Structure formats: C-alpha cells, structure tokens
Amino acid sequence: MSATKLSAPEKTVPPRPITSSLGGRTLPKLLPPVLLVGAALVAAGALYLFDLWNPALWAIATAVGYAVVVTAFSTVVENGRKAKDRLVTSVVYVCFGIAMVPLVSLLWTVLSEGLIRLDGYFLTVSMNGVTPSMDAGGAYHAIVGTLMMTLMAAVISVPIGLMTAIYLVEYGRGRLKQAITFFVDVMTGIPSIVAGLFVVALWILLFGPGNTNGAAGAIALSVLMIPVVVRSCEEMLRLVPNELREASYALGVPKWLTVVKVVLPTAVAGITTGVMLALARVIGETAPLILTAGSSAVAINANLFEGQMMSLPVFIYSQVRMGGAINYERAWAGALTLIIIVMLLFLAARLVSRFLAPKTGR
C-alpha cells in the first residue's frame, strides 16, 4: 500500500497596491497643494511687480492660476475625464471661498468694532437720561424689547404655521390646498415694510392713530414669520416616510393621533431648526418695528401693550442716524449683541432637537 503525499496549499499573493505616481497615470497627492502654493507665490510676485497688489485680486489670480495649472497637469498625466473633474472641483472650492469671504469679513468687522464697547455695563443699562454725546448708556432696554417682541411673535406664528403645514401635508386636497400654498408663497416674498404698514393700518382702525407699542411690533413680525414657518415645517413633514404612517394606520391608530405620536416626533428636529430660521429671519427686522413699536424709546419697558418699545435693530439704526464716534461704537456693540442672541437661539435649537428627536440607536 503506497502512501499518498499531500501537497501543501498554494499561497495566494495579494495584489500590489496601486501607487499614486506620475507613471501610474494619477497625480501625486501632494502635487495639488504644491501647485496651489506655487500659484499663490507667482500671483503675489506678478501683482507686486506691476504695482497692483490687492488681497482680493491676489485671491482671484491664485484661484484662476491654480485651476488652469492643475487642469493642464491632469490632462497631460491622467486623462480628459479626470482633468474635467479636477477643473470642476477647483471651481466649486473657489465658489465656496468667494461665498465665505463676505461672511468672514462681516463677522470680523462686527467683532473688532463691537468688542470696543460690549461689556457688562453696556448690557445692563439703558439710554434713559443719556444724551447722544455722553460716553454712557447701553442697550438693555433694546435687548428686553427684542426678546419680548420675538417671543410674542413666535407664540403667534409657530402654532399657526405648524397647523397650516400639517393641513397641507396630511389633510389638504384640491383647490383650497392650492390657494393656501399660493398665498404662503406670496407672503414669503413680501417686503417687511409692507407688513409694518399693514399692522399700522390695522392698529389705526382698532385703537386710533399714534398708538404704537410692542404688541403691534410682534404682530408685524409674526406676519413675516408665519410663511417661513409654514414652508420649513411643510418640507420637514414631507420627509417623514409614509411607511411610518401606514404602520400606525395598520394598528388602528386614528389619523390625528398618528400625526401627534408618529409624524411630529419624527420631524421635531427639522421643525425646530425651521422655527429658529424663522426667528432669525425676523429678529433683525427694522422697518416694520419703526412703524409699529416706535423708535424713540430710551427707557426699559417690559409691557408689550403700553408705550413704545425699543429693539436692537432699531437701536442700531437710531445710533447710526445720530452719528458720532460714541454712537457708532454703541451701534457696533448692538450689532454684536444681536448676533450673539441669534447664535444662542440656534444653540438652544440644537439642544432641543437632540433631546426631543426619536432615538434611532439600539
């Protein structure tokens, strides 16, 4: 009996990794950054040589030079498809940079100018008894007015806007739905001054001329806020999968309870973000508040239904209108305060969304 000899299993050799090199028909990973730095140096040297130095012009020349050079390298080394991809990628990054320039410039200007006067004193005193030339006074009365009018506008707008969005998504049919959608679109684009004039006319009919107060300003803001809430909430409700609704209906749950227990909790994160966007849309309005809430209040007024009420946008406008270095410093500090309030609102919205959103983990 002959013994059979078992052969050892053949070893599989793993494929060699594809290296990024010029010989491999792919540009090295470090080449695009090197080309960008080279384009920046060449653009800076050319602008200095011709005495045309300007930061904006330098950025544009660098972006154009980099796009041309990286596309040429990719065409020679790689292929036409990769070259087009790199060209489009360069254009996208350039457009992103151009979009970021005004935002960064705005934030830097507001920070540098607003921090000169923004302190605890500015945030805790009003302009009561302060003349324009005095190096005193703050925006406490404007902060109180802004928060109270925005809160009242949200109390009016959020229920109306959310209920309208629920009707359009869950119940609306036919011409009534089309008419509501049309008028919401029209209201989204109306100028803010028109909303102020509308509330002024309404207030004159109800209470007589010259009766301006914070409640009128809040109603004017709610007119601008409602269509934004409707649009944002409608889009968030449409993103809820129909399978969730059908599963709820299959268990015998009525439609209204499905909306309350399934649809709204699923879309709560997006709805909260939409409401915050609507608040950010109206918190900086100036024209309707000048007409409805007044522009001459200098004392703290916590009553929305009596007397004029100052807001931060109107405070900034009034300080700039008076002119002078001190008033300009107050205006910049007020602008920075308004930005901080908006940032805090968005931070609160993120926290609310995180805690109220349905848990998807196991």
From TrEMBL:
<keyword id="KW-0472">Membrane</keyword>
<feature type="transmembrane region" description="Helical">
    <location>
        <begin position="30"/>
        <end position="50"/>
    </location>
</feature>
<feature type="transmembrane region" description="Helical">
    <location>
        <begin position="212"/>
        <end position="230"/>
    </location>
</feature>
<feature type="transmembrane region" description="Helical">
    <location>
        <begin position="88"/>
        <end position="111"/>
    </location>
</feature>
<protein>
    <recommendedName>
        <fullName>Phosphate transport system permease protein PstA</fullName>
    </recommendedName>
</protein>
<keyword id="KW-1003">Cell membrane</keyword>
<dbReference type="GO" id="GO:0005315">
    <property type="term" value="F:phosphate transmembrane transporter activity"/>
</dbReference>
<feature type="transmembrane region" description="Helical">
    <location>
        <begin position="180"/>
        <end position="206"/>
    </location>
</feature>
<feature type="transmembrane region" description="Helical">
    <location>
        <begin position="56"/>
        <end position="76"/>
    </location>
</feature>
<keyword id="KW-1133">Transmembrane helix</keyword>
<feature type="transmembrane region" description="Helical">
    <location>
        <begin position="262"/>
        <end position="283"/>
    </location>
</feature>
<dbReference type="InterPro" id="IPR035906">
    <property type="entry name" value="MetI-like_sf"/>
</dbReference>
<keyword id="KW-0592">Phosphate transport</keyword>
<feature type="transmembrane region" description="Helical">
    <location>
        <begin position="331"/>
        <end position="352"/>
    </location>
</feature>
<keyword id="KW-0812">Transmembrane</keyword>
<dbReference type="Pfam" id="PF00528">
    <property type="entry name" value="BPD_transp_1"/>
</dbReference>
<keyword id="KW-0813">Transport</keyword>
<comment type="function">
    <text>Part of the binding-protein-dependent transport system for phosphate; probably responsible for the translocation of the substrate across the membrane.</text>
</comment>
<dbReference type="GO" id="GO:0005886">
    <property type="term" value="C:plasma membrane"/>
</dbReference>
<dbReference type="InterPro" id="IPR005672">
    <property type="entry name" value="Phosphate_PstA"/>
</dbReference>
<comment type="similarity">
    <text>Belongs to the binding-protein-dependent transport system permease family. CysTW subfamily.</text>
</comment>
<dbReference type="InterPro" id="IPR051408">
    <property type="entry name" value="Phosphate_transprt_permease"/>
</dbReference>
<dbReference type="InterPro" id="IPR000515">
    <property type="entry name" value="MetI-like"/>
</dbReference>
<feature type="transmembrane region" description="Helical">
    <location>
        <begin position="139"/>
        <end position="168"/>
    </location>
</feature>
<dbReference type="GO" id="GO:0035435">
    <property type="term" value="P:phosphate ion transmembrane transport"/>
</dbReference>
